[in-house]
């Protein structure tokens, strides 16, 4: 039974004839939940070697193995784009990670701003969300989710060759035109639900690598703003063109 | 205590000195949850008369009244844009309604396509979500949420002066440029998670008022696609410019 709708992220290198051991969770999903067995095929990817068709060789309750058969899609990496956001309520933070993966961010970085409530995040849980979103969206890339960092420290050590688009709710008018700023390495910064502090806003506007952009006349929630900002960037400079 | 962070949608006309009766739910929220009382101020809007500062005149457990004091923002209607989408799982349908309100859709229309699972929706619950989203996003307008309609019937009776942007996952390349199609009345159609059927896709491409647009190389979930599509439209033809 061939079912390309099942896509699994694996950690092993993928190549013709490569054997892929399954984790206990993957075996449970594939053989228990999805009722697949020996000889069935599915799609696998590891974030580096494209997508492969794989066939089940051994199926057990606690594990199993697949054989990689042939490459079905080349590796396709997103643009070199970071998404920085201030974590919010659990469900919405999960959504931001899912959406950033679908929208093609290369790295997802939770940041602490002056008005961020979160003291810590569950990096492992958010990384697992990124894997699941990549499995669902048909991509071959999984963005890295970083641990929580302080925004002011991140800006102090900012790499000089990376531009930053930030979304300023207080901005009247459309803000800067990204196309003129040019491609290359970028990051998008989404503020917390309470907005940036006055000191943060002044600092951001003064940074030579920062570009203020407006997301319209209504106030967007952080998860909505993340998708809207990624759309603006992908259309102007990314892989949507 | 002035707190502009509290915003309530009310149904009464708003004007200087106008008395506004509160529903039981609003009284519970305002006096019970938010601990406000007589003399406190908040913002109210009704979707027609802009935003007003109102003062609590009577506060009870089951009701109360406000006095409208002065207009604090003019009425601001979104562009004449409908969002058509195929309902999906409950939580994600709620999200689409919330996001469409924030992003400035004038009307939200759940539609049944060939691959839509939903037979019915809770229109009243979705409308309440739109009200809540309008309260949160600082807007003065609440989009109407329609009851579930069949897409094929809706297209058969389509108003000839309204253009339709639909998001085609199977499209290679960026699709049409919206700017060239011009402003005026529009609708956006987001397909169901399983995509459009071949018959639906062929019909959509053949419609003289329809414009196919791509949302990038990855497959987006319906709620992500709704925000991305609204961003594309608002940037090209809407009130973000």
Automatic annotation (TrEMBL), chains A, B:
Alphabetical GO biological process terms: rRNA base methylation
Molecular function terms from GO: rRNA (uridine-N3-)-methyltransferase activity
Catalytic activity field: uridine(1498) in 16S rRNA + S-adenosyl-L-methionine = N(3)-methyluridine(1498) in 16S rRNA + S-adenosyl-L-homocysteine + H(+)
Stretches assigned to the Ribosomal RNA small subunit methyltransferase E PUA-like domain: 22-63
Main location: cytoplasm
Enzyme class of the recorded protein, top EC level: transferase
PANTHER family from the UniProt entry: 16S RRNA (URACIL(1498)-N(3))-METHYLTRANSFERASE (PTHR30027:SF3), RIBOSOMAL RNA SMALL SUBUNIT METHYLTRANSFERASE E (PTHR30027)
Protein family per UniProt: Belongs to the RNA methyltransferase RsmE family.
Protein name: Ribosomal RNA small subunit methyltransferase E
Lineage of origin: Bacteria, Pseudomonadati, Pseudomonadota, Alphaproteobacteria, Rhodobacterales
């Amino acid at each position: 039974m061939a079912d390309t709708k099942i896509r699994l992220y694996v950690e092993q290198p993928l190549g013709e004839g490569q054997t892929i051991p399954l984790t206990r969770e993957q075996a449970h999903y594939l053989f228990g939940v999805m009722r697949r067995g020996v000889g069935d095929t599915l799609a696998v990817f590891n974030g580096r070697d494209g997508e492969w068709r794989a066939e089940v060789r051994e199926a057990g309750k606690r594990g199993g193995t697949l054989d990689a058969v042939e490459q079905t899609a080349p590796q396709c990496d997103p643009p070199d784009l970071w998404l920085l956001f201030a974590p919010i309520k659990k469900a919405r933070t999960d959504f931001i990670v899912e959406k950033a993966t679908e929208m093609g961010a290369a790295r997802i970085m939770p940041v602490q701003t002056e008005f961020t409530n979160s003291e810590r995040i569950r990096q492992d849980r958010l990384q697992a969300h990124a894997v699941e979103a990549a499995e669902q969206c048909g991509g071959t890339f999984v963005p890295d989710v970083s641990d929580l960092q302080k925004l002011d420290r991140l800006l102090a050590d900012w790499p000089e060759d990376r531009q930053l688009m930030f979304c300023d709710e207080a901005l009247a008018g459309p803000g800067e035109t990204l196309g003129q700023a040019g491609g290359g390495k970028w990051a998008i910064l989404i503020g917390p639900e309470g907005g940036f502090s006055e000191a943060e806003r002044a600092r951001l506007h003064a940074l030579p690598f920062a570009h203020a952009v407006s997301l319209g006349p209504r106030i967007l929630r952080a998860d909505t703003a993340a998708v809207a900002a990624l759309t603006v960037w992908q259309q102007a400079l990314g892989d949507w063109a």
